[in-house]
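Table 4 source record.
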Amino acid sequence: MTDATETGVPYPSEMAGPVDEWSEQIYAALCDWPIARTGEWTRWEPGYLLLTITHVDDSEVEPIVLYSADEELTVAFGYWETHNPAPYELWNEEADVIAEHAKLLVEQWLNGSIRTAVLTDATGKWCGSTTIEPEELAPQLEAAARWLRDFHPEQVEVRTPRKCDWKAYPIEPEWLKLPALSPARLPG
């Protein structure tokens, strides 16, 4: 076995060591998924798997990464990530259920049903990321900016799987203000 503390080892391969049971189950649930077949599987110490997808249907896409560390399946794309991408009540489900939800999430990203909004401050430092839908963009960008207002975001970049489609928008100052309470909503 190769010591893979700095880089992953192709999986499956003779060089790859053993993987934990969760990772084996994730691999079994994803290895025949058409999108995963175009990706690269690697094994990392102490025994988890990472799937990196950079091409879909012979087209280059921004990297999509799925990894199985710590008995969680993490999905990352568009400078956003989530762990065990299933509804809250299903977070403790078996690996195959979690993997099905990961597939759905990646497919939504690839078909444009969701995009990511990446917020940065005046120096370009990352403030946070969230997913958004393609409809009614302005209210979603405003909500994201307000959510991260304590980090002083100044720009939001809407990302898709293809970098050529990314668009940046300035954050309007009024987006960072909390909505005023109406007299009917005031306490007391």
